């Protein structure tokens, strides 16, 4: 059957939703470009705008999670991956993303776990030396990045094949 034409407020609502979706796609693509340029903070801002523009699209959440992970915001990245995973499972249109998101979610959890182990080992050492040893609390993202790079290189050398999330895009 033919549908009735939309009028007034209904038309504005539909047009607004379409505009929000288009805006979300642009923000999400911008975030991916910023990630490629290693501008992780700017990528986070763009991805957050994508999510705000269209909360029904898991692509924005997925890109946000990747940006947060690359920026060293591990707990936030895990939360964003989880939200993208739930949203993808709920929406048939995005169900093909579920395996990819599941894999990246597991990688993020593994990284977070390894970092916490490193921090606790570092805390034990520096506590004996009189320091704090808590790099995450001090906000030293560069230390996290260095550890992430070393871990990635070590895992690659050991043949585990983990490549991290840098450079992955839609």
TrEMBL record:
<protein>
    <submittedName>
        <fullName>Uncharacterized protein</fullName>
    </submittedName>
</protein>
<dbReference type="InterPro" id="IPR052658">
    <property type="entry name" value="TPR-containing"/>
</dbReference>
<dbReference type="InterPro" id="IPR011990">
    <property type="entry name" value="TPR-like_helical_dom_sf"/>
</dbReference>
């Amino acid at each position: 059957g033919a549908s009735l034409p939309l009028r007034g407020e209904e038309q504005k609502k539909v047009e607004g939703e379409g505009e929000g979706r288009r805006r979300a796609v642009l923000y999400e693509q911008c975030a991916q470009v910023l990630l490629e340029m290693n501008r992780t903070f700017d990528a986070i801002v763009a991805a957050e705008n994508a999510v705000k523009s269209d909360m029904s699209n898991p692509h924005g959440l997925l890109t946000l999670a990747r940006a947060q992970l690359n920026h060293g915001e591990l707990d936030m990245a895990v939360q964003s991956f989880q939200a993208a995973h739930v949203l993808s499972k709920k929406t048939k249109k995005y169900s093909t993303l579920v395996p990819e998101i599941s894999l990246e979610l597991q990688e993020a959890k593994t990284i977070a776990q390894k970092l916490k182990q490193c921090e606790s080992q570092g805390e034990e050492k520096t506590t004996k030396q009189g320091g704090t040893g808590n790099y995450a609390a001090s906000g030293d993202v560069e230390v996290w990045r260095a550890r992430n790079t070393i871990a990635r290189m070590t895992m690659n050398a050991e043949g585990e094949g983990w490549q991290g999330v840098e450079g992955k895009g839609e």
